[in-house]
Design a protein that fits this description.
Chain lengths: ~260, ~260
């Protein structure tokens, strides 16, 4: 019996950003339950496992959470090694904490494996360091998704002095802009909006806080995307402008 | 000629948390420049490379940053493939942004590889989800290190509603406590202090905001350690107390 559930972060999309521990979990898996946002390419590490798609996306047809819970429990009780593969990291907007708790309450052994979160990988691929001495002494990751009923204090977020990385914000750009402006953030604060972070078809739209909703619309920005808001989002841009003498506010970069 | 500098995150310590891309970079390396906090075990992936320790630690004898810059440049100009191996992620308190900029200005090709940051791995090993629906809709990572002259707004951090993860804070626990209390954070806000995150000798001290400095002192908490401040730090604790009917404020957990 190797009954166990691994809650594994598959990283942001680039299959090379999988950790060695995630690869080991996949090798050991009898059953792999895979989220929508996970790149199928990582399944090369579990050729013999049974693969079950259990996608969940806001606004689309999706697998209910309770069903996912019961499925994990059923396979674990059959003595199977189950890998639940999530985009990014299981404990950063990944429900890893909830699922681990639910399974452990039912006597199932759970092991969590960290993954690279999309906000970090997307920013890095755009040459944006999330922290930078003299510019940003920290970074805040938040979700704009409203199914989470905990409160965000946008005024505090606007004034914290950290780089702001917002997940699941594409449908709420106008609202985010209004909240941050009302909270005292400068209208010309640089913004990078990054679609399909770390994948070959990553696209990137540069803007600022006041113009981001319009620029995203013109760019046809689509989910999944992350927003990076703060001075770091313009640091490399400014170097490029200094070097090439040109400026731009919104453009796409293919296969960075 | 494969002249190039890879700025690679080696993760928090557990060598299995290295990414596949980091392993590839190590395989290609002629020269590996390794930071203090990187676990030597990852060097198994570059048996033929020349390994140069370039440790930097606050308060200790360390390698000057300018020397590290020049060394990377010299090897790259000799046509060598250089891997600069950093603890955690190169762009989260890792100076990756600065080093990439400096090298690119001198015509050197640079590639950044993300790593799992210590705050995330340490929390996960203690069963603390950094975000949790209904409890914390985001997470803020900040450094308490004063060599960074950018400003932190502690009042905003105290009120943002995100889980707070503080790096390099062991020597400043009293100051952090005072700032957060003055900013309006509740005195009984749960705190987990995690030494040597993700390593076999990880140790963990649970406390709350008002008592954390005294509890850390009694626990003999040492650097490197991260602080996790927020309601998520008590969620699993509360479950354990509910299950076993006992309570505790500070204890050590070996080899989690």
């Amino acid at each position: 019996m190797n009954a166990k559930v691994w809650l594994v972060g598959a990283g942001p999309g680039d299959p090379e950003l999988l950790t060695l521990k995630a690869v080991r979990a996949l090798h050991e898996a009898d059953v792999v339950m895979i989220d929508d946002l996970v790149n199928d390419a990582v399944l090369e590490h579990c050729p013999a496992a049974r693969v079950i798609p259990v996608g969940k996306r806001g606004g689309c047809r999706s697998t209910p959470q309770a069903f996912i819970h019961r499925l994990m429990l059923r396979y674990a009780r059959q003595g199977k090694c189950v890998v639940r593969l999530k985009g990014g990291d299981p404990c950063i907007f990944g429900r890893g904490g909830e699922e681990a708790q639910w399974l452990r309450e039912r006597g199932v052994e759970v092991e969590l494996v960290n993954g690279i979160t999309a906000g970090l990988a997307g920013a890095t691929q755009c040459d944006i360091p999330l922290t930078l001495r003299g510019v940003a002494r920290g970074v805040t990751l938040v979700t704009a998704h409203t199914q989470d009923d905990s409160q965000l204090n946008w005024q505090a977020l606007a004034q914290g002095g950290t780089t702001l990385v917002i997940y699941m914000g594409v449908a709420k750009l106008g609202e985010i802009r209004d909240q941050l402006l009302a909270g005292g953030m400068a209208a010309d604060t640089p913004v990078a909006m990054i679609e399909n972070a770390s994948l070959a078809h990553q696209r990137e739209c540069r803007s600022d806080l006041s113009a981001m909703a319009e620029d995203a619309s013109a760019f046809e920005l689509k989910s999944p995307a992350i927003l990076v808001i703060g001075a770091v989002a313009a640091v490399v841009e400014e170097q490029k402008i200094a070097a090439f003498g040109s400026s731009c506010t919104a453009y796409g970069v293919q296969a960075l």
